[in-house]
């Protein structure tokens, strides 16, 4: 019976969060439509931002990515690419494309510990582009090196396999400027670019992926970002700002000691640390989510790579939960302690075990003939309908506020895949998470393989 | 007694013919009206001919310019205000008959114009975006000519500049992004370019640098017309050889003056 209660509580919680998202969507769509982003993007009053782009073996996508970042609609910003000791030609590709020269005596002001910096490259013709070459130390280490070199009060971390929409940064900055005193971090909306047509570092035509794995992820992201994060940010309980695209106040990131190296899940970790720091010191703050700032990312399109990514996430999540277990039910940490952390422990980290025991119990009941088939059927149907309703809710949010996908066939496809997700994909998600936890217990600390495809090939094949 | 005739003539001959006619009526006043309709020219032609036939003045004629898809109506002996009155009635008539929104350009000629000026007037009719009757003045068409490349992401800005500059007699082309613009500069060799700094493909200072490194005999003068009001950017632009910098929202009159100064 516990399984049923568990499912009911999960669904109820999801629905509450989604209701909060719906409450906010009207405001979001109006501010997206009526804000004068063009005027704002030329204003001297918008705070300057340093974009940090950690790159490890990204020779295929890095030029397109940097080209995209160099043409953002923003008054004043710098792009810092950090080559994390790549074993491929990432650095050479960049040096050649932008004719960069080593700066003889780079001014590195920050004091965060990082691996040794081999050199900083620059070309006066591209005054806003810097490339750091350093020894391999992981993503967090690269970000810290970027923070050390950056000159501006805001930093924004961007994955090298992601493309920002031209207005993404200014949309985020607009949200920051609403409340610059209290906003410590803002997350952006991450969407799957597989299937879209990419030209000159910009998404030219939006369309859904053609392959199965990216398609499932598209739905998943839509649900997580629109259905979940809008709601969580409303009660200031966001526990993660996606590593693919987020903006932070540099002073607070430095105050909490920068990014933590040596383990995946650094994007969740920095947010937990910020929550902890602000609540401990009783500083009013908010971690916001800006769904109108869109970042397009390449999703893994094969089983192998996807499973690696998910195991890594499972591992990182567990590590973060164990490290911060003292925040659990600690009244000092308010929403974080009472809601976000327990939610993440019980319904995210431990989710697979509840599901597996539930399934085993159910099997047991069936074998011992203690149940009859229509109870089972009802249970299954309720489970499915609850989940499907949430997916439809996310689609509805998308259609109400953003309408990035405007083909009818795309909509039908999304509805279909939202249903298919429950047969197979969900179960795989549970499996991957358990495998991630096993890796954690084995002290497996690697990042796993993540192969990229060039954006150009992508738009042809995907 | 009105005699309306309709002739199918070669478009170039038409302007010569109009010039001849204007010359004949020298001193007695002569009004010329162009009407343009993108898709319903023949229906409009019948309606206009019907209207002109019942005019009391003699010698009013309707000619069709098939190449431009315009109708030329000559009104000998008409002053500007009388012709304008007729144009208003004609416009109302066309609108009542639901023949779309005709574009009408009107001029009262005191001096016989060159046929090229008449051709420009026909072009201006075609390019007009307003349904108001546009009174064409010769003065505008005789200004210094040059080739201007308009680069902006925003189609509304491009069209606005294009119409305004074309009326002043400049030749213009448009580009929506940085790479397209670089391509057009080499192919078309404009005398001047008006560019936004925020573009797809390549933008900002790197874009300006690229323009100056292009293999063209006379690199175009660069007038930046942008939303960017950051002082540092402005000074960097001037340092890298930009000729003028105008921020949006801009005054079209001021922009005209700055363009004129750059081209002198």
TrEMBL record, chain B:
Q: Which GO terms describe its biological process?
A: regulation of DNA-templated transcription
Q: Which UniProt keywords apply?
A: DNA-binding, Phosphoprotein, Transcription, Transcription regulation, Two-component regulatory system
PANTHER family the record matches? REGULATOR OF RPOS, TWO-COMPONENT RESPONSE REGULATOR ORR33
Return the InterPro entries for the record.
Answer: CheY-like_superfamily, Sig_transdc_resp-reg_receiver, WalR-like
What is the protein name stated in its UniProt record? Response regulator
Report the source organism. Answer: Paenibacillus campinasensis
Question: What's one GO-annotated cellular component?
Answer: protein-DNA complex
Q: List residues of the Response regulatory domain.
A: 147-263
Record carries keyword ATP-binding: no
Q: Pfam families annotated for this entry?
A: Response_reg
Give the domain of life. Answer: Bacteria
In Gene Ontology terms, what is one molecular function of this protein? Answer: transcription cis-regulatory region binding
